[in-house]
Fold this sequence. Notes:
With 275 residues, this protein is an alpha/beta fold. It has 11 helices and 8 strands. An 8-stranded mixed sheet has the order 1-2-4-3-5-6-7-8, sandwiched between helices. The chain is globular, with a radius of gyration of 18 Å.
Amino acid sequence: MARPTILLREGAALRVSDTGDGLAVVFQHGLGGGEAQVAQTFPTGFRRITLECRGHGGSGLGERRPFSFEMFADDVLAAADQAGLDRFVAGGVSMGAAIALRLACRHPDRVAALVLVRPAWTFTAAPVNMQPITEVAELILDRGAESARSIFAQSETATRLCREAPDNLSSLFGYFDRPDAHAFAQVLANIAADGPGISERDAAALRIPTLAIGNASDAVHPLSAAYTLAAVIPNAIFAEITPKALDSARHFTELHAEISAFLHAHSNVRSLIPS
């Protein structure tokens, strides 16, 4: 059962979930996701701490602007502090993977292992695969959610994603349907234009167990991003799983199996289990 708490940061009330027991894993959602997404993504059998980032799930936006990976990563580290974690496994899906990678590179004394699921960023800001999200954000900010949705539905981007990555398209349409669509569009625009703020050299200097998971048929989370991170981080494990758009049930079964096997296989992170 989840143990929800509130973390107060710079005028923002941020919701934190702490569920399960055993090995401590701070695992973050993707852009536009939240606790529900992580609960579906992460396997049972471990202690999981998830902060819903500003503007996501039950967390407020706060007053500070612009939104950035630096801001979100600092919030996540504060949540780990509040949970009493000196060292932990860091992980996440998409945006959450980039947050975890930043934490590992900037706070190597805190992060004992990495789980990077469907990463969308590697070492640069505003990667080309974020362009569909930038397009959606700009339309909502300029035209309002209802008009923006109609315009985007007729766009070349929507046509291409319908053909190549329908799961991505479905997620993008979800941004228009949010009750806070206009306010959240600023989060989308800021994060899509940002990056984790770490270099290839930073990643190559990591000396912790790392798992990078990707899948094909995904325009926003290219398989090449997971492969690149696994190639740069020393001794990282790369795993390719079934695309969610092809078979959702098989996707999550394989995903849970890969994460569980990785965490169970590395005895050096078992010291993180509370006594």
